[in-house]
Write a structure and sequence with these properties.
The chain has about 25 residues and is mainly α. The chain is built from 1 helix and no strands. It has one helix at about 1-25. The protein is rod-shaped.
Length: about 25
Amino acid sequence: MGKALRQLRRKGKHQRVDEENILLK
């Protein structure tokens, strides 16, 4: 359970970071 929640949280954060990186690039 903990790992699954962590992965979901990470995915959400990574998506935002990826979008920001694309804008920066």
